[in-house]
Amino acid sequence: MKVHGKPTRTLWLEPDGQAVGIIDQTRLPHAFVTARLTTLDEAAHAIRAMQVRGAPLIGATAAYGVWLALRADASDAALARALAVLGDTRPTAINLHWALDEMRRLLAPLAVSERVAAAQRRAAELCDEDVAINRALGGHGLKLLEAAWERKGKRGRLEVLTHCNAGWLATVDWGTALSPVYLAHDAGLPVHVWVDETRPRNQGASLTAWELGQHGVPHTVIADNVGGHLMQHGRVDLCIVGTDRTTAHGDVANKIGTYLKALAARDNGVPFYVALPSPTIDWSLRDGVKEIPIEQRDGTEVSDITGRLSSGDIATVRVTPQGSPTANYGFDVTPARLVTALITERGVCAASEEGLRSLFPERARRHA
């Protein structure tokens, strides 16, 4: 995708070949700042502090984090430490552990002298694979948007509601939930996106709105509790969200508040789609509500908020009473029964074990 008209990815190997470049997403939307990652600890911090975030991008960053670690020490002990340190950064997104497993399987059997080059090569491949997967996913999702536009009689705007950020900032490029939106916009469909602010970190207001604006996609930022009202009044044609972990039965874990949007969509007959690259599927889990680990983050993300003052300065202020306790659950689980369909790089399927097996039979057999 593009930033100020320039093609940009969220993650890249720096020209000197000595570091990994990232967009520091904690500085958006008020400043576009890039950073260099040169060590394992810097890569782990970038994931933990959410300088990079979104399940696919976390996985890609972790893969490069292994390479950065092995540049300093490619021994068995160093490899094990890198995998452990990166694996402990975020608990919910399965892509992190999928990418680390990919690196482990490749690197563990190799001679120490071969590991650094192999790690760099595989990390780059995983990034390119992520881009291809999300572009293919977008093509399948585009067909759903075109069908919705036909059902609407090609009148007015095609109204899409999304929650959190599942655009290109959450991946290496293209995005998951927003990939079909970008393709629809580029194809000339008059698509408009309702962007949930997505408290407490405001990834919708800060990130989704920013990247949609960069691409010229019409959008409107709304408070998180507005979606149900819009659906009741026929102002949402479909919902598309991403997911950080999907069970073998089709339950999905996404940013906190997604479950409530799915309930509102079901009550109002609005299609509720979930877009996911296949590495997001956790074939070992069956019951998402009981089995998916839900990250609990620092309560200051709830009690404090950061924004730009009228002076232009960036400031963080407290919005809750001093002494009031906070709870900060990062994700919730939407049961498969509330999901209209899953959009993947291989096509669209029912949110069920049968649906996922029909598209990924080889992976399902591996975990049977």
TrEMBL record:
Keyword annotations of the record: Amino-acid biosynthesis, Isomerase, Methionine biosynthesis
Superkingdom of source: Bacteria
Chain positions of site Transition state stabilizer: C164
An example Gene Ontology molecular-function term: S-methyl-5-thioribose-1-phosphate isomerase activity
UniProt: substrate binding residues: R53, G54, A55, R90, Q203, N254, K255
Pfam families in the record: IF-2B
Annotated catalysed reactions: 5-(methylsulfanyl)-alpha-D-ribose 1-phosphate = 5-(methylsulfanyl)-D-ribulose 1-phosphate
Gene3D superfamilies linked to this entry: translation initiation factor eif-2b, domain 1, Translation initiation factor eif-2b, domain 2
Function summary: Catalyzes the interconversion of methylthioribose-1-phosphate (MTR-1-P) into methylthioribulose-1-phosphate (MTRu-1-P).
Protein known as: Methylthioribose-1-phosphate isomerase
Gene: mtnA
